[in-house]
Design goal:
38% strand, elongated, four-stranded mixed sheet, 365 residues, alpha+beta
Length: 365
């Protein structure tokens, strides 16, 4: 809601009447203390009230400014100076005031609406300062400010006001501001990246393996399992099937997660979760992804296991031992079960061992 005009007319020595004009898309009304009533209409709306004199030519006006949501009403104390010339006339000091469009979050915080940001940095600076003052009065805690790429000029303004970087995506930068005294308890940026590897073995006891085009020189010549990162909002089991298809052209069916590794300080000092998934081949023809993969083939299992780099690495060797145990029916992995949680009402995948519903050839330890 943009306060575009304020007229103050002198009614007497101890009172003043105010008329406010707003531009708004909806109709609502709200009453505040000190006898001020504000009515909003789709086109123009006015409020009138009686306000106390602060000094000889100053009057205190407690006004209400509404956002697009009736819940986001702003109250503030503003002093407007009237210059009287022999009691015959007055000049008016006015300014545009509004609060950034926002939504309340469930933790007494604020999420700024990125679709209603001013494009001008100077205007944004004054409105942001006004908004922070308002949110402090409301006893708000954390402020989330999402700045789309087209509003990149607003980033220095927000940083100057005390906002901190939280995370960035190709389309936006997220910043935060913590209002209360004491340490900030807003959740940090995502701490992990998630990768998958597909262990695919056919009826001829051959493993589907690849050589990568770009890798650490120490791993040159190694034939390895197809691996990759899962996409945003992608299930682990779907990501494993997709990665194998993209790198080798082979269609597969997810069987189970047979193990996962948790490592730290990997890429950009983030932690890493890597899930090794057993997959059943549904096709055999190989079509190599020339962009990332140097070569792909079906490799006899024992030849794959005996590679020096696998034999010399305890992590690789343990993974192979687990795969062998699974093939010999002495080990069961984890299978995803779709369940709805009462905490968020959403369907999630819970991975656990359930020999009653998994592969009948799987005999758990």
């Amino acid at each position: 809601m943009l306060l575009s005009l304020m007229e103050l007319k002198l009614l007497g020595s101890k009172s003043v009447s105010a008329s406010l004009i707003f531009q708004n898309g909806g109709t609502t009304s709200s009453s505040f203390r000190h006898g001020v009533r504000i009515r909003f209409s789709p086109q123009l709306c006015s409020c009138r009230g009686v306000f106390p004199r602060v000094s000889e030519n100053e009057y205190l006006c407690k006004i209400g400014i509404g956002s697009s949501d009736q819940e986001n009403l702003v109250k503030g104390d503003y002093v407007y100076r009237i210059n009287e010339v022999n009691g015959a006339g007055s000049s008016i000091f006015s300014r545009n005031l509004r609060v950034l469009g926002f939504f309340d979050d469930e933790y007494d915080g604020v999420v700024v609406d990125p679709k209603r940001l001013p494009s001008d940095p100077d205007a944004f600076a004054s409105i942001l300062r006004f908004s922070l003052t308002h949110w402090r009065r409301m006893n708000k805690k954390g402020i989330w400010l999402k700045l789309p790429l087209e509003n990149a000029e607003l980033v220095p303004v927000a940083v100057k006001e005390g906002f901190k970087y939280h995370h960035a995506e190709p389309e936006y930068l997220m910043l935060t501001y913590w209002i209360p005294d004491g340490p900030c308890v807003l959740p940090g940026n995502a701490t992990h990246q998630v990768g998958v590897g597909g262990f695919v073995i056919n009826d001829d006891n051959e493993v589907l393996v690849v050589q990568e085009k770009y890798c650490n020189p120490a791993f040159a010549g190694l034939w390895k399992l197809p691996t990759g990162f899962i996409d945003e909002s992608e299930e682990i089991f779907k990501g494993a099937v997709r990665e194998v298809k993209e790198e080798t052209g082979v269609d597969t069916e997810f069987v189970e997660v047979i193990a996962f590794r948790h490592a730290h300080n990997v890429a950009f000092q983030k932690s890493d979760l890597f899930f090794i998934c057993m997959l059943k081949p549904l096709s055999t023809e190989i079509k190599v992804d020339d962009l990332e993969i140097k070569g792909a083939k079906w490799m006899p299992f024992m030849e794959f296991v005996k590679q020096p780099l696998i034999q010399g690495d305890c992590m690789f060797k343990k993974v192979i031992d687990i795969c062998i145990a699974r093939l010999r029916k002495r080990y069961c992995g984890l299978y995803p079960h779709q369940l709805v949680s009462a905490f968020d009402g959403q369907t999630s995948s819970l991975y656990y061992n359930d020999s009653d519903t998994q592969d009948t050839n799987c005999i758990g330890n």
